[in-house]
């Protein structure tokens, strides 16, 4: 399992941290993992699955 940092996440999804937080709060993006008091990350496989779902939706449109 690999954990993505904020900069790594931004490279993958191209969203601002604020938009990612809004999507998380709405249940539309994988939840972050609290790694320490001032450190969070995202499970890479969950983010890649989320991206794959977006790509599949594009094909159906």
Describe the structure concisely.
The protein has one domain (3-60). The protein has helices spanning 6-13, 17-25, 44-60, and strands at residues 3-4, 33-36, 39-43. The protein contains three helices and three strands; from the N terminus they run βααββα.
Description:
The protein has one domain. It is 56% helix and 18% strand. It is built from three helices and three strands, in the order βααββα. The chain has helices spanning 6-13, 17-25, 44-60, and strands spanning 3-4, 33-36, 39-43. The chain has a three-stranded antiparallel beta sheet with strand order 1-3-2. Strand 2 (33-36) and strand 3 (39-43) form a beta hairpin. The chain is globular, with a radius of gyration of 12 Å. The termini are far apart. It holds the Pfam family Phage_AlpA. InterPro entries: AlpA.
Topology summary:
Layout (H helix, E strand, L loop, with lengths): L2 E2 L1 H8 L3 H9 L7 E4 L2 E5 H17 L1
Antiparallel strand pairs: 1-3, 2-3
Task: Name the features.
single chain; 61 residues; alpha+beta; 3-stranded antiparallel β-sheet; 3 strands; 18% strand; globular
Mean pLDDT: 94
* Terminal Cα span: 32 Å
The main sheet orders its strands as 1-3-2
Strand content: 15-25%
Give a count of the beta strands, DSSP E runs of length 2 or more: 3
Relative helix content: 55-70%
Assign an overall shape: globular
Main sheet specs: 3 strands, antiparallel
What is the H-and-E element order?
A: EHHEEH
Q: Tally the helices.
A: 3
Give start-end ranges of low-pLDDT stretches: none
The total number of structural domains is 1
Pfam families: Phage_AlpA
InterPro entries: AlpA
């Amino acid at each position: 399992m690999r954990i993505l940092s904020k900069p790594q996440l931004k490279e993958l999804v191209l969203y601002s941290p604020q938009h990612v937080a809004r999507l998380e709060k709405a249940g539309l993006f994988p939840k972050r993992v609290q790694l320490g008091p001032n450190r969070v990350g995202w499970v890479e496989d969950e983010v890649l699955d989320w991206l794959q779902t977006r790509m599949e939706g594009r094909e159906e449109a």
